[in-house]
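Before relying on records like the one below, remember that each one covers exactly one chain. Contacts with other chains, cofactors or solvent are not represented anywhere in the record.
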Amino acid sequence: MSRSSKPYEIVERALELSTADGCVVIADEHSTANLRWAGNALTTNGVTRGRTLTVIATVDGKEGTASGVVSRSAVTAADLEPLVRAAEHAARGAGPAEDAQPLVAGAEESADFRDAPGETSSAVFADFAPALGEAFATARAGGRELYGFANHELVSSYLGTSTGLRLRHDQPNGTLELNAKSPDRTKSAWAGRATRDFKDVDPAALDAELAKRLGWAQRRVELPAGRYETLLPPTAVADLLIYQLWSASARDAAEGRTVFSRPGGGTRVGDRLAELPLTLRSDPYEPGLESAPFVLAHASGGDSSVFDNGLPLTATDWVRAGELAHLTSTRHSAGLTGLPVAPAIDNLILDGGTDRSLEEMVAGTERGLLLTCLWYIREVDPATLLLTGLTRDGVYLVENGEVVGEVNNFRFNESPVDLLSRAAEAGRTEKTLPREWGDWFTRAAMPALRIPDFNMSSVSQGV
């Protein structure tokens, strides 16, 4: 199909071409705009467009229903029928799908299903770019260098099925990462923001924040590995709890393979995970963090099923007032475990703390560490969800309510589930950008957490 073909027309034509017992078609229209800079000067900018078409064919047989999935980009009119046939061939050559369920039906057609896709452009930076230029001048005058990038993406997803679903979702997604470095590059500070439209991002405020952190780094204190009272900022909390959500499979827990498995059988749903009244939740309609209100599954695996495409999503508490409330599950895995259907949702919020800002929590610290962000997070033990990783771009020593200097970086070993149980204080929930997982998951709102004994297992030589 040509770029001028409307996505809904492509979806309809693919469904018409299908000879399988069932068919699901997802057309994703991608549009991106970006800026990059280094040494207080813009280096590159660009705009891209793209289209990906995914066809899912289902074929009924005596032993069950099989599925075949094929995705391709830049599909032309000549490519469309071969793509549909390839999905059907894959389904007929596969065995029965373990996650087979009747395709979803009954949802009302999206009002904008037949409209043209949304697009972003360099205009999204109309206010941001001049403000960034002013930040460059301020940084230059202050003897620091700014590096980073801003990216804005708009994805319009069109979902059509042989059972009559015609759904659409537009997902804007913007990220900003900004590094400030000393001229000799020995000191570095980082800040990041997630945004839908760059209207709520202030480069001057971010530069001022980074300048303050570079000022803290003028004094250097070397500390050994050990357990320290530690303030985790919202970005670090997001990185840890996103991984926890990704590990919260109902089926894996019921099969005894995760931290959410109950010894002797079953899951830990209903167990208390945190002494503080914290609630970890997802909601596709959360203001400022809106995400797709229905399942968009391009493949089956883990707790995702192509048979669930179009299934409505609703607000879900994963942890409610400190107790484990739900684990992620498809219709298939819910049937296996006896737990409610709870598909993953593309945002994550932790609330239930106080209204104290991170600065106020620092002021209330007698002696401890203040982190900037975490990096290179990897799983060590799924049974406890023990993770390891590194601190990066600034670890600071707090004494008597004030930051008194920068300390060396560390490798840490901690479980987010265990951290929730030991958290002594949670501050104000605010939108944040995960540093480690920002390429895959950006819609998060977290508080800072005070951990009385965070495990810095070894010293790291990273900046």
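The chain has a mean pLDDT of 96.
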